[in-house]
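Appendix B, Record 12. Input sequence as logged:
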Amino acid sequence: MGKRKRLAADARKAALKTQYFAKLRNVPSSPRKMRYVVDLVRGMEVNRALATLKFCAKAASADVEKLLRSAIANWEQKNERKAEDGELYITKIFVDCGATLKRMRPAPQGRGYRIRKRSNHVTLFVDTKND
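Logged structural output:
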């Protein structure tokens, strides 16, 4: 790795140390299904988002709820205090495609249909509103 790339990588790492986030990787559901749930809570206050996720009927909401609790715990650990009501907000949340497992399903006349088992990665950032 060249010097310019090394400096850029170090700058990215230093920027992440001041941000509060959590990542959920290799979730075995399609990114499209996960984005439905993520779009529900984008920009919300964390307690309201937790309540929304708890009563959401989608299966992906349980994964996002667990991820949100992890991000809140990360914020509390870095700031060495408990989060108060109305203090924390979801600043950024996004879903990326993960690895796709390719499988074959038997089909008529000796053919095989291709099955794609998709996965995704979710990244969630929390922060206070005034920052």
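The CA atoms of residues 76 and 82 lie 5 Å apart.
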